Amino acid sequence: MVHQSTIELKTNHHGQMHDLTERVAAVVREASVVTGTVNISNVGSTGSIGCIEFEPGLMEDLPNILDKLIPPSRSYGHEQAWHDGNGHSHLQSTWLGQSLTLPITAGRPNLGTWQQVFHLECDVKPRTRTIVVTVMGE
Amino acid sequence: MVHQSTIELKTNHHGQMHDLTERVAAVVREASVVTGTVNISNVGSTGSIGCIEFEPGLMEDLPNILDKLIPPSRSYGHEQAWHDGNGHSHLQSTWLGQSLTLPITAGRPNLGTWQQVFHLECDVKPRTRTIVVTVMGE
Amino acid sequence: MVHQSTIELKTNHHGQMHDLTERVAAVVREASVVTGTVNISNVGSTGSIGCIEFEPGLMEDLPNILDKLIPPSRSYGHEQAWHDGNGHSHLQSTWLGQSLTLPITAGRPNLGTWQQVFHLECDVKPRTRTIVVTVMGE
Q: Which of B22, B72, C78, C110 could form an S-S bond across to C103 if both were Cys, CB 3.0 to 4.6 Å?
């Protein structure tokens, strides 16, 4: 069985994180899949999907470490294409990942207590994001 | 067809790696799936799943490069939540990934000769880990 | 429904990127799957699969940032195993990821306009690569 739905998200700034866990769980419930997998994918190449303990400290730490290791700069080759100062956004998003697949057990995404699904805005301006959630199983 | 099983793992220290390849292959065999996919996911946000050539050199190199780029430190914002010195564990695990999906071909995970499935303990103390293995296909 | 096929690729050098988007879309069309997922996996542990805006700037930026943060060196433990100078290739490929799963919507991989599927050669010599594409859905 396959069920697909989308989550719409408005983001405000570079480094902003959203907790998607309950919205993903709601799509799994709609699908009535008890055992299987759920794929969560950001449409576009400057946003990321992943898992983290969603608490205020890590909501600063994750964007900070990304900006430290892959810093904002006008010297990326990408700057030649668009001149919009978001070369680091692309590299951060690609390296962290734009897509995630999780197991479904007993009708819910199988996550630890302190493990949530997040969206991270890597771009440098507010965006409207579409996240595709695909449930497969039985 | 969907088949789901778990692998239990006891880990001893930060940076310890386990080769899960044969245990994942055994779950695929149990499922009698010839063609499809297998998802391998760590429950919890301070352990990682990935693929690597599982040999003693890389078993040191991978935790070393993670500790170099995302170093242990008491200065992470996460420290404010729990004061347990594992902010870097969360960031390493999130960036490397907690979940992996591989193709199944001819009844086995389709991997290269020097490509194995690993679990990496990113936390700073021994943990008992549950890894969920979900096989789908026909 | 499950459909699996392979893409063969000849690579020439470390850091070379190929755009796989159209070849992946062709496998999805062959499968006649309208809604579902497609998994794209590199066989072998020194090549990566991911998503990026495939344009000349980022084709330099991505290998550059990987070489900056995980630099070529003879000092990796992996060098003891094979003495072939590709320790960084393994670490780059493992950290960036060797496998990707994307949603299928309306018979096509659901990607943004500036979001393409790439293969990155992380090894230090030309390789012949096999990429396994697995389509599931209905």
A: C110
